[in-house]
């Protein structure tokens, strides 16, 4: 982790706005910011690029393939926004989009993007990036920075702690307060352990956005 000018450790966090699990983890990281001297450094990755191109669409159901083809939309708008207004806009825009997609359950609502742009004081014209390939290379470059480290057998979220990129943590709901800090401390411990690779168990519930 690098430190910013105020002495906070910067935590790179790669997200695709469409992923509900990454959304929960991102809300946990915001809770960690309240109790530990860390700051999220929001970065984009693409589930569409990962599943349709890097994994060549292998093993995808027709329904999931259709979802992945649609997944380009929001991450392309995020890339366009970062190019227009600078990297710092990604956090507020991710929150605006994610709140609508996940908390409000409006995944099929075409107004989500334009509302999120308006909320973050960005031009509505950036919504046109959803169907353009203009910013795809920017997305892929950011994506590859993470996945060159963690490999292609994981998804999102990916974050870098103590110089180590990790997939996860995958959480049903975001811990808050002391619990958020305790989870962070545990991740720092494992990420700092030479040779550590994986902890995992099967998921048996859907994510909760409360």
Characterization of the model:
The protein is α+β, with helices and mostly antiparallel strands and 210 residues long. The chain contains 7 helices and 5 strands; from the N terminus they run ββαβαααααββα. It has helices spanning 20-35, 47-54, 62-85, 90-103, 112-119, 136-150, 177-191, and strands spanning 2-3, 9-15, 38-44, 158-161, 164-167. Strands 1, 2, 3, 4 and 5 form a 5-stranded mixed sheet that branches. A hairpin with a 5-residue loop joins strand 1 and strand 2. The protein is globular, with a radius of gyration of 17 Å.
- Summing up helix and strand content along with how strands pair, one would put the structural category as alpha+beta
Basic shape: globular
- What is the helix fraction of residues, given as a range? 40-55%
Determine the strand fraction and express it as a percent band.
5-15%
Helix tally equals 7
The Cα radius of gyration reads 17 Å
Biggest β-sheet strands, sense, barrel = 5 strands, mixed
Average pLDDT number = 94
Say how many strands there are. Answer: 5
């Amino acid at each position: 982790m690098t430190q910013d000018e105020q002495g906070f450790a910067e935590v790179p966090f790669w997200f695709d706005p469409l992923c509900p699990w990454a959304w929960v983890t991102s809300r946990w990281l915001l809770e960690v910011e309240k109790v530990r001297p860390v700051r999220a450094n929001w970065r984009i990755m693409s589930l569409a690029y990962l599943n349709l191109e890097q994994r060549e669409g292998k093993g995808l159901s027709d329904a999931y393939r259709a979802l992945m083809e649609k997944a380009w939309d929001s991450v392309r708008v995020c890339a366009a926004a970062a190019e227009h207004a600078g990297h710092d806009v990604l956090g507020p825009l991710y929150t605006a989009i994610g709140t609508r997609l996940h908390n409000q359950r409006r995944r099929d609502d075409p107004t989500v993007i334009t509302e999120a742009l308006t909320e973050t004081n960005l031009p509505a014209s950036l919504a046109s990036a959803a169907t353009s390939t203009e910013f795809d290379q920017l997305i892929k470059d950011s994506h590859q920075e993470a996945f060159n480290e963690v490999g292609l057998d994981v998804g999102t979220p990916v974050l870098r702690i103590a110089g180590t990129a990790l997939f996860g943590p995958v959480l049903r709901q975001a811990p808050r307060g002391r619990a958020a800090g305790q989870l962070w401390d545990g991740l720092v411990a494992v990420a700092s352990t030479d040779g550590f690779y994986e902890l995992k168990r099967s998921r048996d519930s859907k994510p909760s956005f409360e």
